[in-house]
Design goal:
The protein is an all-alpha fold. The protein has one domain (about 45-170). It is built from nine helices and no strands. It has helices spanning about 1-30, 45-50, 55-70, 70-80, 85-95, 100-110, 115-125, 150-155, 165-170. The longest helix is centred in the first third of the chain and has 28 residues, at about 1-30. The chain is globular and about 40 Å long. Residues about 20-30 have low confidence and may be disordered.
Length: about 180
């Protein structure tokens, strides 16, 4: 048990350091920062670190899904193909799916357009320029970031909530 805790602590510490470094670099140059690409040589830990971008909740979600079975890796690759990482993963799970894990992974599997819309609106309100996309085979890097005009427009919108999550929370379809 102590060995498990020690490994988790090292893993978490690496997240925190990487997140702080990337934030300081991004703040210093005042530009958008490109996400690290997943490489064929990457270990499972490398992939989870890249996908979670230092967000502890995202790392837990990713770690749990890949532990369940091999199809968990397909869901991680689905997230990557939709350019959904870090805080965006957490926003999809917590805000759009109402912390319903099965619902979240089902939405990821289906590349749910409403979830993508919710993630983009919520991310924009936080000042995040990374755009979640429905994977249509278009991987042009300039289409993975919001322009300043797009960000301002999104900030004025209301993010949808999945109907199942809204029923559970006793609220309307729109949050």
């Amino acid at each position: 048990m102590q060995h498990l805790f020690k490994n988790f602590f090292k893993f978490f510490l690496k997240f925190a350091v990487d997140k702080q470094k990337s934030k300081m670099y991004n703040d210093a140059i005042g530009e958008k920062m490109e996400r690290k690409e997943i490489q064929p040589k990457d270990t499972a830990e490398d992939i989870i670190l890249k996908m979670a971008e230092g967000v502890p909740g995202a790392s837990v979600l990713l770690s749990n899904v890949v532990k369940t079975n091999i199809s968990g890796w397909f869901r991680v690759m689905d997230l990557d193909s939709m350019n959904i990482r870090g805080s965006q993963i957490w926003l999809g799970y917590k805000d759009y799916c109402g912390e319903n894990l099965d619902l979240f992974w089902d939405c990821v599997k289906k590349h749910d357009e409403k979830m993508i819309e919710a993630i983009n609106i919520l991310s924009a309100k936080m000042g995040d320029r990374d755009k979640a996309v429905k994977n249509d085979g278009d991987t042009q890097k300039d289409k993975l970031f919001f322009s300043k005009q797009e960000l301002e427009k999104l900030k004025k919108q209301t993010a949808p909530v999945h109907p199942e999550a809204a029923k559970k929370q006793g609220q309307s379809f729109m949050a």
